[in-house]
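Here is one such tokenized protein:
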Amino acid sequence: MTESPPREDLISPRLRNWLFLIATALLYMGPLLAGLSDYGWGVMPFFVVVFLVWLALMRPGLYPASGSGWTGRTWAALAGWAAVQVALVIFCFAVGRGVGGVLGALPALPLWLTLGLSTIAIPLARLFRPAPLTPEMEAFIDAATRELDEASRKLDEAAAAAPDAAAKTAPDATSDTAPEQDAGEAGSAPAQAKAKDKGDA
């Protein structure tokens, strides 16, 4: 039985990236609009849960596949990512409250709408997530990055060596004046000798 060829993606990579960005923007719009609607800080845990679910679905590589992979370093990394999500929620919520305070007009948006925007962003972001890079493309990007780093290092070395080379090739002021002083002393020596002879006479 022959395998059917893979179905071509109907969405271009560029459009997929834009849709993914829009879905991600909806995720952040939820706490921002909640803050703009002057909700209390007590609603933030709901958005933190939504953000953590988004992180779990969009970054599955953060979680080890086997039980032996759950080391202290893994827990520390997960705690760091969770702290980032909490900070993002606080930032968006604070920005919304700040904008509402400046405008002086707060929209009366229902809480379910703000939570719904962040929640609907999860399946949309999952649906329009850009395709992962192939191993060949990752190897190509790594090689190109190494070549760029090497070229940048050589340019830095050349720029650092340029002042030294200029100092070596520049004419020395003392060496230019030395022949002139020698010539002047050589020219004045006969005149001094003649003056001495006249004095003796």
Summary: DSSP finds six helices and no strands in the chain. Helices lie at 13-36, 44-58, 72-103, 111-127, 135-169, 173-200. The first helix runs from residue 13 to 36.
